[in-house]
Amino acid sequence: MDISYSLDTTPAARVTVVRVDITTRADLDVLLRRFYTAAFADPLIGPFFTEIAGTDLDVHMPRITDFWERALFRSAEYRRDAFAPHAALHSARPLTAEHFGRWVQLWHATVDGLHRGPNADRAKAQGERIAVAMLRRLGGRDASTEGEGPGFVPLAALRLRGAA
User: Fold this and answer.
1) Secondary structure class of 9 (helix, strand, coil)
2) For residue 126, which phi and psi values (nearest 5 degrees)?
């Protein structure tokens, strides 16, 4: 159980936050809506959703929820090509390690802000694997996993952590 408190430690001011694991499609819906709200607003990756793809979140949500439900619970019937939309974006404006790294940062922060447990850990690990795989498919096997920018975590570090 994850518990945090405010700086004011008087009994009246104490705030308890309990984060539970991702267990249902409803959990995924809340998680994904929060994530995409942050991603759309992000100055680095937001334009891919809002300007280049013109993503309609209400249309996108059932599809992406199916994807994550299948990835985490093996229960949804996701039969789409997840790579095709990313390839289309990449052809309009190249997706780099910095973009995928930012996606991973936002994904981790969103998952960690709402959930804790084996499925939450699996969601974060799966997000990392997807980011590296997409970068490799788009940029070729030798695509750089390095990047720059404030707070950027190079995707190379994710590969190294995964190997440890």
Assistant:
1) coil
2) -65, -40
CB 22 within 8 A of CB 113: no
Q: What is the DSSP letter of 49?
A: I
How much of the chain exceeds pLDDT 70, in percent? 74
Q: How is residue 160 written in tokens? A: 């190294």
Kindly state the tokens that stand for 82. Answer: 């997840």
C-alpha 125, offset from chain centre: 10
Q: What is the DSSP string of 109-159?
A: HHHHHHB-SHHHHHHHHHHHHHHHHHHHHHH-TT------STT---HHHHH
| pTM > 0.70: yes or no | yes
Secondary structure (3-state) at 20: strand
DSSP conformation letters of 15-55: -----B---SHHHHHHHHHHHHHHHHH-TTTHHIIIIIS--
List, in order, residues 6 or more apart from 106 with CB less than 8 Å away. 35, 38, 39, 42, 45
